[in-house]
Specification:
109 residues, 2 helices, 4 strands, 33% helix, YdgH/BhsA/McbA-like_dom, signal, Dodecin-like, Biofilm peroxide resistance protein BsmA, BhsA/McbA_stress_biofilm_assoc
Amino acid sequence: MFIRWSASVLLALSLTACSVLQGTPQPPPPVSDHPQQIQRYQTQGLQRIGSASVIVRGAPSDGEAAIYNKAVAAGADFYVIVMNDETVVPGQWHVQATLYRDPGHVPFA
């Protein structure tokens, strides 16, 4: 009986921990004239337009800047960096992002 009860409690705590990591869905910030980095929980209602991946030498921020430039080139309103990791080569960073567009946003002509 105790084992069944403790297993139930452990399962409930595990599921609660998962929800903490997901975040509560929130709307993205207003669209601006440049792409904005957002979090995964802010993507509800946005249109996924692709992904971007770069490998750069330098610092993690250099990879994030390269992703920003790719988002600008793709015409994205928002992007979510899903990975920013150093490769086996010291000082070389692999960064991946998902690009989004607000379907209600009309780009400037």
